[in-house]
Amino acid sequence: MSNGGHSQLFATFALKNNVMEFTYTLADIDTIAKKLLPHLHYKVVIFRGGMGFGKTTLIKALVRALGSTDNVSSPTFSLVNSYEGADSRIYHFDFYRIKNEEEAFNIGFEEYLYSGDWCFIEWAEKVENTCLILIPQSN
Q1: Helix, strand, or coil here: 5?
Q2: Do you know which PANTHER family this protein is assigned to (predicted)?
Q3: What is the Cα–Cα distance from 107 to 121, expressed in whole angstroms?
Q4: In principle, which of 21, 49, 64, 124 could form an S-S bond with 53, CB 3.0–4.6 Å?
């Protein structure tokens, strides 16, 4: 879609007992990230959407909103990037290129999930069984 030359993005967030929907432009993404964070009841967040849907772009905004000044990039080849937030570490996973769930275990995925730090996960469907078993139900 186009809005005066600006692409519009649409995001739906399934949050504890409710759903939030946002339609926004890239210029609004930092504001959206700041509005979203207080509603995230868990620090493990799964991002779904096809290639080019803006998952990494939104994660960059969330990392900034959490007080990090680190350069945020997609961990497509490294599988995980780590950032220093104002109050905790932030881990950004991208499982697009993994061939099996064992690869996630090989990088210590379980330890990251139970660290109590923020974990933003792209392409979680590649490790869906692992996520169903390991994602903490509260943190």
Answers
A1: coil
A2: TRNA THREONYLCARBAMOYLADENOSINE BIOSYNTHESIS PROTEIN TSAE (PTHR33540)
A3: 14
A4: 49
